Amino acid sequence: MTVTYNPADAKYFDEFDFRQELTRVFDLCHGCRLCISLCPSFPTLFDSIDSHDGDVDALSRAQQDEVVDECYQCKLCYVKCPYVPPHEWQLDFPRLMLRAKTIRKREGGAPIPERLSDEIMGRTDLIGAASVALSPVANKMINVANSSSRKAMEATLGIASQRVLPPYARMRFSTWFKRRQRPFVRNRRASVALFATCNVEYMAPEIGKAAVAVYEHNGVSCSLPTGAKCCGAPWLHAGEVDKFKQAAARNVKVLAAEVRAGRQIVVPQPTCAYVIKKDYPLYLGTQAAEEVAAATFDTSEYLFNLYRSDKAAFATDFNGEVPAEIVYHAPCHLQAQNAGLKSRDLMKLTGAKVSVVAKCSGIDGTWGYRAKNYRLAKTVSNGLAKALDKTPAAQLTGDCHLANTAITEETSRGVDHPMVTMARAYGLDFS
Q1: 58 in a domain, yes or no?
Q2: Is the pTM higher than 0.90?
């Protein structure tokens, strides 16, 4: 039995070795049960073991694989589990589940529709660029749940026809950034490179525009790294390690040049920031990946650190729209970064009262979009919706664009990114 979460390890793809490690981890989880409320995997795991009178060795492969399939990589195990490395038990449930998916993918065990879906969802830049260019047509096809076009997507790609999907923008964020008239940044304090992410580049450029406006208002000039593409998370979560490593190596080369030029990397989407910080160093194992990870920050994390370093120099001229109360949704992949809730702290500077809801949206990358997971995903997101319904604030914010879309699906309420909330509080034009 080998405790390994690194695909470079010779035993990583050994099916027999993996099943032994799965049994070891399942036994530890069964004895602890601290994570029972996190995701469907754990109740399924514990019920299966209990059906065998606590005998973990008696689990069938089908029962083991059901646990794997229900893990959507929220990463909250890292927040709650007491046995994660460097603990001597070295229990890393999310990476063990990724190991399972990687072995399955290498052995060709995934059904053809799932493999086709993985291929489509993994090519975010190709699909995104085409969809923006054809956004009026693309949005008509995807925006109406249960339409004939969406049912066709479900039949061919496995994307749930009931799921509300975020629409594509008419102009890419990078196109706007290149065309904009750059203002003179007064009292410039720093320069950053904005890793825009696929969500901002193709679907929600207003988040990037707001971030640039807020940063420049605080004396931080922004640039876009030439050649940066999708972080590769869809490949990784589908078990396509080789394709993920290709995406990671490409981005590390681009981002390392920014870091060596004296710029830190800021990321407006938590999944992408997590991947750069945590997964690039592990899967690439290079000094450049370590340097990039150390220089990468969530957009609010960077700004709040700037505030703490020199409070007097931070802009506090909140002359725009400041909500009395804000409910902030803390995404799972942001919590897993262990950087604190800096978006909450930043928005408090405006004078607003900010409360936090930290329940999962059930999206987590592409998992919640798949038809086979839709029922379970809705069970998860219903818990989030109930928590939000108890809050009196009219203003909802959240860092994750995909989670925000799920919140809108559940509550019919709009959700703003914290950078948008901050830009409005300053009264900035970010059109």
Answers
A1: yes
A2: yes
